[in-house]
Design goal:
Length: 164
């Protein structure tokens, strides 16, 4: 075989290998994942430094709406006061590690809370009704493997109280 034939054979072999790898690649998590069973509210963290403490929280499930498996998924919940750009807190979790999330499969519920919130000597239910209480929201992001974070959606935190 001449050097030129070997080079072409190598090019064809690599092109075929690249095609087979791309056919098996995972779908885009941002497009494939569906957020379901969302419940938001304020988690009672008990008494901290002599005051009642409430933090925003979200509970959710995710469903793989693609026709192929997904893996290495992280979920990031970023909490903010409505209308404020400063972050109130965030929580990152692994939804999957190395295991695959099959097509149509659901995972969760995942419970994600901020470490920051409101503290007051007032009763917890009165805190939610106080005139100075400001509502919060949460933005959800997904990261697949070593990829970039992609936004899944935003949800307003309901003024309801959750026990520990």
């Amino acid at each position: 075989m001449t050097g030129m034939r070997r080079a072409w054979l190598l090019v064809l072999l690599l092109a075929g290998l690249a095609g087979s790898i791309s056919c098996r690649s995972e779908p885009d998590a941002k497009e494939a994942l569906k957020v379901t069973d969302v419940v938001t509210g304020w988690l009672d963290k008990g008494i901290v430094d002599g005051q009642n403490k409430l933090v925003p929280t979200i509970s959710l499930k995710i469903r793989n709406g693609a026709d192929r498996s997904l893996s290495y998924l992280q979920i990031n919940a970023v909490f903010r006061i409505v209308g404020d750009t400063e972050e109130l807190g965030s929580k990152v979790i692994w939804a999957t590690h190395g295991e695959a999330m099959d097509p149509g499969a659901s995972l969760g519920p995942f419970n994600l809370s901020s470490d920051l919130g409101y503290s007051s000597p007032a009763a917890r239910t009165q805190m939610l009704q106080h005139s100075m209480f400001k509502d919060a929201q949460v933005e959800l992001f997904v990261k697949q493997g070593s990829g970039q974070w992609a936004r899944l959606g935003a949800y307003r935190i309901d003024r309801q109280l959750f026990a520990k």
